[in-house]
Amino acid sequence: MRIAPLVCLPLLFATAGCINTAASIVKAPFQVAGKAVDWTTTSQEEADRNYGRKMRKQEAREGRERKEAAKQCRKHPDDRRACDYSGYRAGY
HSE on the CB side for 85, CA within 13 Å? Predict the structure, then answer.
């Protein structure tokens, strides 16, 4: 009866490593799937940054077009079509 605890104790320590390895193997596919989802989805911060960049480009485009329209209006002040800007508007 006294020998049983002495035999079971080393066996318990030997299987502890196996349990950790088995747990790591079971968790691995879930961790890989989680990484894949992180890579394929856009965070809110990233979406905000991309939207801000898009709006700055649109506003720059509108500014260039308005500048060109004003230039044409100065060249041809009698032409109503040259002075009516109905071009691109940022945010639409």
Answer: 15
